């Protein structure tokens, strides 16, 4: 590459109407790793839907770049074809991609294609296998339904909105868990043993449901419990029965926002730091 080379890294997560999968993003990170090793400067274009505020394709000035790399996914469609027109002066390289039709303009527009699979070619390992990523906590999320029996004390919808908004900003792998058992729905557990096997594999549980709290503690998993009933009800009572401190009870007369995020942050850190075995069950 010439001394003033600069690369724009792209992929399906670059398109507003594209899709960002973990595999796509990891493949683009694999390209970052190769460019870093070569000492080459680069930028990455992201969909503003996926990463608001990051460099987007619309904002990327083609004149700044000598090369464009497209990583992962199938080479087809008008979005990919459009790259060839907009970045016509760049050397365009596709890597780790699937080629469906070698004569597709989306394919032929590239100067170099290094496929992971293509007609008549031996497949190669997908780029997503290359980057090493850190472990993050696996957090089971068990939320209560409406529970109309609590009448005007119900705060379920507001607490769900605030709690999931806060949880979405934590660096963790969120695992939605439903305590309902249903042999007709493959997404749900069929037996309590199946459900508890999932819970045991979590690092912690965030829950507004009584049995989310109880079954987490039963299996030695710290739980951050939020009672969705104003003034507290069975979640608060069960936390007291277990002498479990990581519980939030919202006063019945509290005005929104109902949850104190600083308090949630403290309980979050405590739950992740607490070591098993937890206190014996009552």
Give the topology.
Elements: E1 7-11, H1 22-38, E2 42-44, E3 67-71, H2 78-86, E4 91-98, H3 105-108, E5 112-117, E6 138-142, H4 156-167, E7 173-176, H5 192-200, E8 204-207, H6 210-218, E9 223-227, H7 234-241, E10 247-249, H8 261-273
Parallel strand pairs: 1-2, 1-3, 3-4, 4-5, 6-7, 6-8, 8-9, 9-10
Task: Please tell me about this protein's structure.
With 282 residues, the chain is α/β, with parallel strands linked by helices. It folds into 2 domains: 7-129, Rossmann fold (3-Layer(aba) Sandwich), CATH 3.40.50; 138-273, 3-Layer(aba) Sandwich (Rossmann fold). It has helices at 22-38, 78-86, 105-108, 156-167, 192-200, 210-218, 234-241, 261-273, and strands at residues 7-11, 42-44, 67-71, 91-98, 112-117, 138-142, 173-176, 204-207, 223-227, 247-249. The protein has a 5-stranded parallel sheet with strand order 2-1-3-4-5. Strand 4, helix 3 (105-108) and strand 5 form a beta-alpha-beta unit. Helix 6 (210-218) packs parallel to helix 7 (234-241).
